[in-house]
Inverse folding.
């Protein structure tokens, strides 16, 4: 068996599954990932490099996918994992540490009161049932009388919805709400189990679908980033299921390089009075 | 601890148990119920428990007799969630659960503690019992012990009883050096920036910062007390309630001020987690000046840094970005 002092193996683990070795590099990575809740891929890479720099300068930085798989093999026995997903609107990869054993919205449970949790559940149902993946503020607020627990006024409910946005459970766009990628990552299992009939699935990646495009003939659905990848450089996009002409605009595939260039040029132009601080 | 705790789960002894387990040599620690296969994977070939950081681990010795009403409070709190009164006569208890169930509870508790810490909420022992341990209260010591082990081995975190009096636990980083993480991703944490702004103002003033002064500074960032902000939401609520609740700030009435005015001070948690040198670095970054542009504050920060180094030489971080 491997000695206790070797750093994480840099090769992919083939053969029979065995638990990986945790070093301080992995531990710090996990600590920080947990602290931040959900991170985009370029942040995760920075985080990984930071952890190596702190604990093991001489080692080669392992390929991110292998690094994460290695950690996940240790986490498996704890029923948690580092899960990778993508934002539904522009396909940015995101990562979060999720609890696989969760069978309810219990991660939020410690943060919110009973009526607030119920408000979230109501919003969630509206979002899942909707055609666009968005639920309007008005429709959510109209359900305020049906909430369990202490009576909540609409004004209060508006603020609770904002709390959900700040905590990255919901995203708001022009008065309408949809699920944040974090919520999708953490609650996909719960949602699929709780709403098996209403839930929509992407025809390409077979994951939970909240926002996406659908074929007007046969009704299959695809995530926007899945559409982008599937129809990349295809001048005549056709539905993979019924072969009918795909009637929607094909988005661009997410390019991390382009994104980083845009970000750095924005940063140099930005004045000191940054709203981030 | 007092005798009332015989039949009841006692956070201090549980914490001591968890601490001593972390200190023991690798391999299956004595006293643990036979580990289920999942725990065996962790107990197997792994890196040994973290070295020097284990040393300063002692949980505070029980001081029940000297504290007013404390044993009673402890017993009462740990009786929350129980259907019946705790009898003084030892009952024949329910059969011990299968090891796998205890392991599962330990995993649930691990996640619970991680999430509470992520949200910077207090990890309160009675909450742990009520929300997670539930009917397994009698075995909470072994559950806590296993959870602490997992947290130490997988996350490099110590679950420590920080206050026996309030029965609060906290997750303490067991890896060193500790400060660097802030530098790594600091620009992604706007809340920290906002907090640091206020703490810096208080620090530079050398005394409490009046609420009006704080808003003058926040106005520069485009934050107003009556305006909802896209990232921060209700800013006034955030700084006067949430940060105060988390012990990062103190918000107090200015004595003898008419009409009533309030001022901000550093909270106990800020004093624990944030060093004066970090404030100087923050100021230097934001104002693009050398930290020595605030000479007396910089001197203070240097002194604090030296005092910290002397107190705990192992915690000194050689890669501190501010050279001395």
């Amino acid at each position: 068996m491997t000695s206790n002092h070797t750093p994480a193996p840099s090769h992919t683990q083939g053969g029979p599954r065995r638990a990986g070795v945790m070093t301080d590099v992995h531990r710090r990575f996990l600590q920080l990932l947990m602290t931040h809740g959900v991170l985009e891929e370029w942040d995760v890479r920075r985080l990984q490099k930071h952890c190596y720099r702190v604990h093991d300068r001489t080692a080669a930085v392992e390929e991110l996918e292998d690094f994460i798989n290695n950690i996940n093999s240790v986490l498996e026995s704890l029923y948690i994992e580092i899960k990778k997903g993508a934002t539904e609107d522009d396909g940015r990869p995101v990562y979060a540490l999720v609890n696989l054993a969760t069978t309810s919205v219990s991660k939020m449970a410690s943060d919110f009161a009973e009526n607030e949790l119920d408000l979230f559940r109501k919003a969630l149902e509206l979002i899942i049932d909707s055609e666009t993946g968005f639920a309007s503020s008005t429709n959510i607020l109209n359900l305020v009388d049906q909430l369990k627990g202490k009576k909540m006024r609409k004004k209060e409910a508006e603020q609770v919805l904002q709390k959900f946005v700040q905590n990255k459970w919901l995203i708001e766009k022009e008065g309408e709400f949809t699920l944040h990628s974090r919520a999708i990552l953490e609650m996909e299992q719960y949602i699929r189990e709780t709403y098996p009939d209403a839930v929509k699935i992407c025809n390409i990646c077979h994951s939970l679908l909240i926002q996406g495009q659908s074929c007007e003939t046969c009704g299959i659905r695809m995530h926007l980033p899945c559409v982008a990848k599937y129809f990349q450089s295809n001048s005549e996009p056709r539905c993979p299921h019924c072969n009918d002409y795909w009637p929607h605009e094909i988005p661009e595939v997410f390019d991390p390089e382009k994104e980083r260039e845009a970000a750095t040029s924005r940063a140099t132009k930005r004045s000191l009075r940054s709203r981030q601080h | 601890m007092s005798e009332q705790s015989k039949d009841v789960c006692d956070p201090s002894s549980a914490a001591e148990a968890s601490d001593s387990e972390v200190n023991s040599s690798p391999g299956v620690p004595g006293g643990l119920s036979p580990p289920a296969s999942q725990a065996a994977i962790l107990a197997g070939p792994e890196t040994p428990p973290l070295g020097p950081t284990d040393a300063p681990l002692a949980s505070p010795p029980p001081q029940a007799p000297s504290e007013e009403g404390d044993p009673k409070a402890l017993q009462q709190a740990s009786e929350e969630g129980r259907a019946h009164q705790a009898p003084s006569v030892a009952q024949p208890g329910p059969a011990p659960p299968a090891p796998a169930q205890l392991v599962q509870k330990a995993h649930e508790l691990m996640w619970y503690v991680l999430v509470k810490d992520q949200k910077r909420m207090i990890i309160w022992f009675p909450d742990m019992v009520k929300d997670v341990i539930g009917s397994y209260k009698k075995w909470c010591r072994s559950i806590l012990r296993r959870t602490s082990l997992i947290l130490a081995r997988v996350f490099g975190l110590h679950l420590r009883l920080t206050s026996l009096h309030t029965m609060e636990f906290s997750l303490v980083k067991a890896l060193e050096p500790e400060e660097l993480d802030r530098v790594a991703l600091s620009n992604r944490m706007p809340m920290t920036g906002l907090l640091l702004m206020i703490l810096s103002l208080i620090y530079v003033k050398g005394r409490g910062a009046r609420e009006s002064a704080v808003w003058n500074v926040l106005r520069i960032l485009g934050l107003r007390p009556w305006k909802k902000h896209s990232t921060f939401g209700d800013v006034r609520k955030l700084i006067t309630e949430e940060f105060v609740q988390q012990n990062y700030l103190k918000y107090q009435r200015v004595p003898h001020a008419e009409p009533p005015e309030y001022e901000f001070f550093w909270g106990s948690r800020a004093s624990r987690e944030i060093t004066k040198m970090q404030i100087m670095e923050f100021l230097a970054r934001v104002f693009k000046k050398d930290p020595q542009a605030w000479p007396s504050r910089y001197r203070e920060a240097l002194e604090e840094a030296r005092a910290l180094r002397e107190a705990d030489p192992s915690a000194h971080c050689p890669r501190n970005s501010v050279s001395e």
